[in-house]
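Q: Could you fold this chain for me?
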Amino acid sequence: MTRAVWTRQSLHELLQRDFAGVKVIAVSNREPYIHRRSGARIECVQPASGLTVALDPIMRATGGTWVAHGSGDADRVSVDAFDRVAVPPGEPSYTLRRVWLDPALEERYYYGLANEGLWPLCHIAFHRPVFRRSDWESYREANRIFADAVLEEADGQPAFVFIQDYHFALLPRMLKERNPNLTIAQFWHIPWPNRETFRTFPWKEELLDGLLGNDLLGFHLRDVAAAEMNGLPGARRPSGIDLVGDGGEFVVEPLIVADESPAGHGDLEEDELPAVLGVGLEQVVDGAQAIGNALRVIRAVDADS
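A: Sure. Below is the predicted structure, expressed as structure tokens.
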């Protein structure tokens, strides 16, 4: 197995070379830094999150923008007039653009459709998924709000947008329709259900159409499913989704990241990453040649390495 170490400097050099002139925008529901009140003070903290550990060094190297939901009780008073704040504190390297969601909308979009509907559906859990039309409408509205923020940050220019997780299945299509110059990638951090299970989702056509707005779409698969997929010549796509257009294929590559977060892991070698990030094998669906450079930065992690 190849052993390699990325430092912030080497990441910066790679991104400057491969993404010269292209703005990098990350999107997630959870924000990488939270401002919260502590007595009379306001403190900025980094939440415990494998996603933050993996993406924060990349965002620092690119000087890009991370769009996320502002959830801290002091988040609003810590941003400028455009809902932006430079992070990390003390060593600002990129911009955090906060998105505000009405509590009722957040309840239906996040705790309703995403957590009570999609999460148990995709895990094929014993807990029956709950599908409410009001939750789906809120999910769609939340995706639209995030789309507006991303498009403002891209400002009509070419940009690479990396979307995180099942909270934003509709976002890629919304973005691509309004700015075709965007190169869009998304990673679905939970398992993908089998065809028989997925067909019970009432809005499956709209959800799939949203996902297929991506240029690069990554899925998290259980080790057994991944082994079966690697061993079967015909298994070229996750069950339950048919790829159209560019004839995409699966690519498996290791993620190599240097953690310079306050947790103090230091420069990580490839075989040390799974224990730190708590992630497993990822399969990536590549649907566009232009995304090739992104695969050099955003790669999958093999938990068995």
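A (continued): The chain has one domain: 8-296.
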